[in-house]
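tl;dr need the bound structure. longer version: we got a ligand (pyridoxal-5'-phosphate) that a collaborator sent over and nobodys looked at where it sits. i said id run it. heres the input, straight from their email, havent touched it
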Amino acid sequence: MTHVYTKCVQAGWTPKKGEPRVLPIYQSTTFKYDTSEQMAKLLDLEEPGYFYTRLQNPTSDYAAQKIAELEGGRKAMLTASGQAASFYSVFNICEAGDHFISSSAIYGGTFNLFEVTLKKLGIEVTFVNQDAPEEEIQKAFKANTKLIFAETIANPAGNVLDIQKMADIAHKNGVPLIVDNTFATPVHCRPIEFGADIVIHSTSKYMDGHASALGGVIVDSGRFDWSKYPEKFPGMNEPDESYHGLIYSEAFGKDAYYIKATVQLMRDLGSMVSPQNAFLLNMGLETLHLRMQRHSENALETAKFLKNHPKVAWVNYSGLKESPYYELAQKQFDAGRSCGVLAFGLKGGKENSIQFMDSLQMIAIVTHVADTRSCVLHPASHTHRQLSDEQLIAAGIRPDLIRLSVGIEHISDIIQDLEQALEQA
Ligand SMILES: *Cc1c(COP(=O)(O)O)cnc(C)c1O
């Protein structure tokens, strides 16, 4: 099984003789053992095994394993939401007194997490322009910088990350690169191939694909050598008293990051996905490759239509030849396909944008993005309304930006709806 399309369908749960063909839902909080010693060994991490669903559950593990294989990673852990995945991915490395670097072109929820909530935990972030030259980004590093975070395709502006450039900068400074690959999905881009160390997703988007189950995932490439920098990463290299002084990098080597996230963060903070939602996610993954193909074909057609419309001021979609990100998209994305999300602005500014959105009939105004149904959002008045104009612009979001998530309906119906709404704008 080598092709990503086949992995979407077949990876993860591979039943043996007489077992269910479809991934079973292990709807159980707990697991049974025969002796007290068996249980003690599990709790001391001397043996692998399931004991409580807050840490691990077979249904979520099989779905996670499929995603790990899709991304070309070693191990993956599901979380209850994308937000939990973002938080754990950083908090598994950083503690109070640490600093990290993030691209400013990121999802609004992640921006709040980094700028407001992590600050309260004593973790400081510096936002950088991911398109800036290396020397510029280098200036953001401090003695206590522990990682770089960025999105493959930024939500909502659509900026495409030069993953290799960012991974090189991170590695020169002895820190890992974490990439949020929600919009591209591993069907179109596998950041680990370009040097990313950890990949995360909001699986609530394309992976689930139907807007039915909230979830997140953290994929560990196993490539970052935590033991090389013992002082920089004490969490990986110093004894964990809650496991009798176990040292993650020594005990688990390439799996240190993944195991620590599971047995320490999940144990202490929860946010585990439910088995039912893991099942729905796994079902969504089986058609991810088909949907992504249609999403990006429809989005490209839509982008071309909008670009040529007299009422449209600008369109940002990396599949368009005139996009500043076209070359990068061709390099990093399979067949140059990006995703179904595009951004555009109307002539006449914000008021006109609102009039346009209110005139749409099939395409709905929803907070969500990246599911089968076409939808729109105006970040400046919806998801990013807490940001100042300067912060909006730093995040690559113009005040007139409309985010259009192109679904998998027939392209003629999508364009017809846009056309009639543009007439009224
Ligand atoms: C939606 C989203 C998140 C947050 O995920 P939830 O599942 O809503 O918690 C994180 N990153 C990106 C790029 C997203 O689009």
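gonna send this back to them w/ a short note. The chain has two domains: 4-283, 289-424.
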